[in-house]
Amino acid sequence: MPLNNQMKLEFLSIPANISFARATVAAFASQLEFTLSDLEEVKVAVSEAVSNSIIHGYRNAPDRFIKIYAGLTENTLELSIEDDGRGIEDIDRALQPAFTTDPERLGLGFVFMQSFMENLQVDSLPGRGTMVRMSRRVGAGAVQNSREH
User: Fold this and answer.
1) Catalytic residue status for 33
2) E-strand spans in the chain?
């Protein structure tokens, strides 16, 4: 489907920018007919992806950059969140509930992303960074149906 609108955002890898990323993506996504509940779930997914970049990708180094690309089609929000940090050695393992490389974390970031978005794809190379791609269509039925099956 052709894009109706798109944006690119780049910001420093500092915790204060997690809420900035959430709010910016939600404002952009609100151009579609998402419900408030839908937008809250998108915000959680974005928060988790950005947090992963800061905490795991960059090990809290504040001088690195995170990039977000968002595109809107007629009824779908497409997102990619990218860092050029440490990367993920075993993506399948990282996607498992409760897996974490930081014992102070619960390891549920990817679980939330999978629950709140229709599609999730994680591409990563150790030492080269990670790109998380997610999408969600308008109409929570699509996400609810994928949760039921």
Assistant:
1) no
2) 5-12, 65-72, 76-83, 119-125, 129-137
Look up residue 126 and give its amino acid. P
CA distance 14 to 1: 34
Which domains can be identified in the chain, with CATH numbers?
A: 3-143 (3.30.565.10)
Catalytic residue list contains 52:
yes
Predicted pLDDT at 25: 98
What pTM did the predictor assign?
Answer: 0.87
**Mean per-residue pLDDT for 11-23?**
98
Catalytic residue among 40, 78, 105, 133: 105
SS (H, E, C) 101-131: CCCCCCCCHHHHHHHHCCEEEEEEECCCEEE
